[in-house]
């Protein structure tokens, strides 16, 4: 499965569009761009196809139109742009993402620019694959998990910063994991909202496993991988029909990929009851070519959303970062609840049947 997460896009963990000025081999200070010209524009860590709608030379004068730019420091007020800026529209994105950008974020649409776009994308994919290698880091904070709405999040100051680990053996406190009952814990900064039906399902899981000696029948269908793929496809179909979620499909795709990676890395560490460990080991040994997200289903995915806030609290993450994670993942939780009968059906076996 291809699980393809401005001020708008700052879940890119330390990515700053302003640092694109360092790309002196491509960004030329004196280049002039024309209205309706096809360009490449930095948005977060990547270059996207865009079109110039308008050009202005700002002096910062109060007499100019009220065009505001979010400052680097979120405690400061928005400021007026100074110098040449272009109003751009990203191809395939809603017009709510149109924005004023400095010339340093724009690259000519030519072979050199397209090569740079490809290089950045391949580099990002490569870093993700490297993060899946395991080692001490049990989970990696996604550098581009998602984004924020236009003008809501400040720019960060280091576009080349390596995403810090979400948690490792020292950061993730697993003490007492085997006794957890998967009920909500004290608020670590935020909690994802679960409807009564989902809460009831979690309680039923706990009682069935710890009291009635039951186990979920595995492999589960649909799997976590199938569920996330279905959500991805449904979002893609509906994004042009509703303004409810103001995120480009690219960023939602990356959020989905991040959730899938979290599940893969954290299932055996945090999401299983002790009674489920033997089943897990047997399942993995018999399906060594498959990922856990292809073997487990929505009932185990649901547990992840209780753990994520606590895990994220172990990282040095700004409040804005957490709020944006919450907004995107909350929509995914609502999707799960609306498809409860399809994705969260209980199917139990007696633990004694496990051989």
From TrEMBL:
Location within or outside the cell: Nucleus
Pfam families: MRG, MSL3_chromo-like
Biased composition (Polar residues): 137-149, 168-178
Taxonomic superkingdom: Eukaryota
Keyword terms of this UniProt record: Chromatin regulator, Nucleus, Transcription, Transcription regulation
Domain Chromo: 47-122
Main location class: nucleus
Cellular component GO terms, alphabetical: NuA4 histone acetyltransferase complex; Rpd3S complex
Alphabetical list of Gene3D superfamilies matching this protein: 2.30.30.140, MRG domain
Protein name: Chromatin modification-related protein EAF3
Disordered: annotated span: 120-184
Biased composition range(s): Basic and acidic residues: 151-161
Listed InterPro entries: Chromo-like_dom_sf, Chromo/chromo_shadow_dom, MRG, MRG_C_sf, MRG_dom, MSL3_chromo-like
Membership in a protein family: Belongs to the MRG family.
Gene Ontology biological-process annotations: chromatin organization; regulation of DNA-templated transcription
